[in-house]
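Show me any protein, keeping tokens residue-aligned.
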Amino acid sequence: MNFNSKLALAVAAAALLFLGSAAALAFVVWSGLAADHRELLAAALVERAGLMLLVALLITAGLGMAVNGLFNAYVVAPQRLAEETHLIATANPGHRIPLDGGEELQRLACEINALADRYHTLDAGVEARVAAARGDLEQERNRLAALMSELSQSVLVCTIEGRVLLYNQRALQLLGASSSPEDERDAGIAFGLGRSLFGVMDRNVVLHALEHIQERLKHGDARPVIHFVTTVAGGRLIRVQMAPVLVIAAVDGATAAGAATGGGTRISGYVLTLEDIQHSVETASRHNRLLQSLTEGTRASIANIRAAIETMLAFPEIQPARRQEFEQVIHDEAQALSQHLDAAIADYADCMRAEWPLETTLARDLVAAIQRSIETRLGLSVTVEGKDELVWLAVDSYSLVQAFTCLAGRLKRERGMQQVRVRLENMGRQAHLDLIWNSAPLPADVAAQWQRTAIDLGSGDTPLTFEDIVARHNGQTWHQGDAAAGTALFRILLPQSDHRSAPVELPTAPSRPDFYDFDLFHQSGQRPELDRCLLGELSYTVFDTETTGLDPSAGDEIISIGAVRIVNNRLLHGEVFDQLIDAGRPLARESIRIHGIQPAMLEGQPRITRVLPRFHRFCEDTVLVAHNAAFDMRFLQLKEAATGVRFTQPVLDTLMLSAVVQPNQREHSLEAIAARFGINVIGRHTALGDAILTGEIFLKLIPLLAAQGIKTLKDAREASRQTSYARVHY
């Protein structure tokens, strides 16, 4: 029974008690009066009936106020005291109970706060000892995480069912790169912790490889490894190495996936090492086409040249006219052969260049390496010019150092230079890297020849030139001189490495309304097997939206969606969805004050019809969580026809769940709940910031729900249905 029902019963009981007492007193007085006195009293009562009714109402109102005060002080206050005490014990040890209610309850609250202080001190000491005890384990975990993040290969670990347990950044980049262009910024939409590997990789290929591993285990191979090539979403080819994760256990029968093997071992999962071979396959294909072109295009010419030469050798006394015919054949075929080779080289030039990995490097480190190489290998004096700025370049440092050293060597040998300068200039999105010397400029043909002459990269002559190396870096090069200053230079124009701007802090403002008409309890995606799952075992997508206004039925639109995933009771800050949306309509001034999103920020952003399908993929196989979820779900529901996307997943609302665990609290806004749980509020009124805050609150709510016997998804849905918030519609 809720607070209002209990208060109404208490007021009704007090009123009935007062009326009963008054009636009993009137009966006693009436029965003791003589008949004529009764007649006089009756007439007086009839004459003063209105006044008596007013007095009765005033007395009843006074009793109601008194009962309400006593009820708040000695019924509601103890219940709120119990909720606050439970909050300290389970969710937020740093929380302290506000002094409320009667004097006795305030004294009790003071004692509980003092006890909480001692408990918090002891708990902190225990936590410190536990943290110290597991320090070595945490250090090993950090080493593993660092090793995984720095591996050049893409690595991920999966359960036998194909659920992703661990992956490194390289794997995310590889599998994210297989998305369509509009999905590339959300690489984790179909891939992430707890998600199925089969969302990005062919299930049949993986199961076939597992079967091969099981067969090899049965035949005594202790450490079987399988290699195969498959495609991922987007059609990219990858080479996969699969190694099983084995556990020793008694065999009690094969699993549905065939994970059990002979010899008392069982496959509990597998490790995949991925390599993107799309480019190498394409390059190999172009190499094959080049060889085929050279073979087919030169066979006839070589045969004709050979026949002409053999004939001339066989008949040395051949007539001059006939000899001239054969010489013309040799000339024509040789010219045709040369033209064919030139055309093949032009068509397949990219296949004939060496491939180098480009690494992000500080430009000043590159300049220092060039200086050391020229001074050490050539004995020239090198002066470095330019500001010491943090300019990042994606380069192959070795080849650029060798190219500059080679140019400096030619200046020393052919121009007698004993001193050169290296200069770096930051030009915004590009950087100028110059080799400067004090002399007249080189003749144009000499400068061009130097740039087109093969460069020694330290392992003998190669067909690579200075121009080839610059082209590999998507840069440009030229030679210029300043006759007045008596200097000349070779300049390379290199693009700077990408960088991201810092996030913009948006202003905060009052919250939106607490309710909106949408039925959270009849989602078509609700399934019995999900209802039986424990809350801590489910995966969640916690999301929030920002809108042009507060009335979707009147045409207001979503302008931002932010979401974060929860897997195994962990908030995955690295797996988020964050997208601004062009609403195609003006923003209300009141709305801008709430979320701080200006119209200019939405220019060039995708429309809702492109964003919702991506967000739907991000939410697959999860339970949706939001604060005042009906508001956000109503916006999504109204876009079903336009996007062809329906969000049928089960939905939990932290607004309702907070009312379930703390029904006597006066406020259940995000800020109020966060304050009670001791959660710092950062990034409020941005979609992603609110989603992260809601996720942190939801994780705090799970143990509080469990303490009340609400452990499964069905329990949480049924408990939410009973709150007053579930019955209010606008």
In short: Confidence is low (pLDDT under 50) at residues 250-259, 499-510. The radius of gyration is 40 Å. The CA atoms of residues 300 and 569 lie 71 Å apart. The chain is about 50% helix and 15% strand.
